[in-house]
């Protein structure tokens, strides 16, 4: 338990952390990777290069400083990060390494302002924060152990099938190399995929949403080729698209993630996605479509064009067979003639107002940051309570908060 004095000292550092947080975390990562290059097998080095990871960690550190006297307020964020840590096989022994280099970075960046008293207070605070993370992650690991067929860390899989879903998205059907049955997962969760690419010194690991309802034989992930104009192709996504063929091997973590469908209700549900944000939503809608109930489903998806729209026919068949199902596709680049469920344009407040018939429904949203922020704001303007809205962006909820 932290003393009142320690908490006050840590809280007093919040202003300087707000100003110099990213500088501190950038210094931290550089020094940690120099001392422990093996940790590059865990971290997404692309997010290091773009600055996304140092920025997200800086925000987490700032939130910890501001809430050190009530860490329970950070529980949703800690849980989300804990799921990601579990999928990457982060263990208790990693936390002292992080703590050592984080304190070292604080001392370097703050210079004389980092007094012995401040450093000692942060050492104590970090130990308490690490304890919270370790306990939550232990609960997650323990829950996995209770489930038949689950595993810890990474397990060898083979590519059972590979299917092009759109101009930019390809699905991979992954089967355990040992032929064992796969454990159930919550619709909306993801797995970490770890591969060793020729020419790369370290493993590359990425998280991909499971895009199918559970079955015991295979998991399906659907990967967008990261290839924005003027930027280099995503190292992992391009390798999967261009080099990973049927029969190839890779490693996969057990499913994780807290963006998950609540199945124990008959509450009407809206799925609102954009681009490759359709992937976790597909797992949810396929799970619901397989159930024999009258739960009302509204499926809204925005894409650049019809050729960029993955799972179009699959969704039309799924929702079309549901008496209580409604569909709406929105293309920012005109793709043929509009129909009863196809609109050319962009998802905006007017379209939301027309499409949303029930503000007491459950809403599941996934897509790019700007899309997410716009949709959530639009739903709130319609009177949808925030507790009815669940979201998953390809950044993180931390990034969502940073952008606010």
Describe the 3D structure:
It contains 13 helices and twelve strands. With 404 residues, the protein is an alpha/beta fold. The protein has three domains: 143 residues, Globins (Globin-like), CATH 1.10.490.10; 100 residues, Translation factors (Elongation Factor Tu (Ef-tu), domain 3, Beta Barrel); 135 residues, Nucleotide-binding domain of ferredoxin-NADP reductase (FNR) module (Rossmann fold, 3-Layer(aba) Sandwich). The strands form two sheets. Strands 4-3-6-1-2-5 form a six-stranded antiparallel beta sheet. Strands 10-9-8-7-11-12 form a six-stranded parallel beta sheet, sandwiched between helices. β11, α12 and β12 form a beta-alpha-beta unit.
The Cα radius of gyration reads 22 Å
In what order do the strands lie side by side in the largest sheet? 4-3-6-1-2-5
Kindly name the structural category: alpha/beta
Poorly predicted runs: 395-404
List keywords for this structure.
3 domains; six-stranded parallel β-sheet; alpha/beta; six-stranded antiparallel β-sheet; Rossmann fold; 404 residues; Elongation Factor Tu (Ef-tu), domain 3; Globin-like
């Amino acid at each position: 338990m932290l003393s009142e004095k320690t908490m006050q000292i840590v809280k007093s550092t919040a202003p300087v952390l707000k100003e110099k947080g990213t500088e501190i975390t950038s210094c931290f990562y550089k020094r940690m990777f120099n001392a422990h290059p093996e940790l590059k097998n865990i971290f997404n080095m692309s997010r290091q290069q773009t600055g996304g990871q140092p920025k997200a960690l800086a925000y987490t550190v700032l939130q910890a400083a501001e809430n050190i006297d009530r860490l329970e307020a950070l529980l949703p964020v800690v849980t989300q990060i804990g799921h990601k840590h579990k999928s990457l096989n982060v263990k208790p022994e990693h936390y002292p390494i992080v703590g050592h280099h984080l304190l070292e970075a604080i001392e370097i960046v703050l210079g004389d302002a980092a007094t012995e008293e401040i450093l000692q207070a942060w050492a104590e605070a970090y130990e308490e924060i690490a304890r919270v993370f370790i306990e939550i992650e232990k609960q997650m690991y323990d829950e996995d152990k209770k489930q038949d067929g689950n595993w810890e860390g990474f397990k060898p899989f083979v590519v059972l099938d590979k299917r092009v879903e759109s101009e930019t998205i390809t699905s991979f059907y992954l089967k355990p190399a040992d032929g064992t049955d796969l454990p159930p997962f919550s619709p909306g969760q993801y797995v970490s995929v770890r591969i060793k690419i020729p020419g790369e010194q370290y493993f590359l690991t990425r998280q991909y949403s499971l895009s199918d309802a559970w079955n015991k034989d295979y998991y399906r992930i659907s990967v967008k080729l990261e290839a924005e104009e003027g930027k280099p192709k995503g190292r992992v996504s391009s390798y999967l698209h261009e080099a990973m063929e049927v029969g190839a091997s890779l490693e996969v973590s057990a499913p994780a993630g807290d963006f998950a469908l609540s199945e124990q209700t008959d509450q009407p549900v809206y799925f609102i996605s954009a681009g490759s944000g359709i992937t976790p939503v597909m797992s949810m809608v396929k799970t619901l479509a397989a159930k024999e109930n009258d739960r009302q489903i509204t499926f809204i998806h925005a894409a650049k064009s019809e050729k960029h729209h993955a799972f179009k026919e699959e969704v039309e068949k799924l929702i079309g067979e549901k008496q209580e199902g409604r569909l709406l596709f929105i293309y920012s680049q005109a793709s043929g003639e509009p129909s009863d469920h196809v609109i050319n344009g962009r998802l905006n407040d007017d379209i939301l107002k027309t499409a949303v018939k029930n503000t007491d429904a459950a809403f599941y949203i996934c897509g790019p940051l700007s899309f997410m922020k716009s949709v959530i704001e639009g739903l709130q303007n319609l009177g949808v309570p925030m507790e009815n809205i669940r979201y998953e962006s390809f950044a993180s909820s931390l990034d969502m908060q940073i952008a606010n």
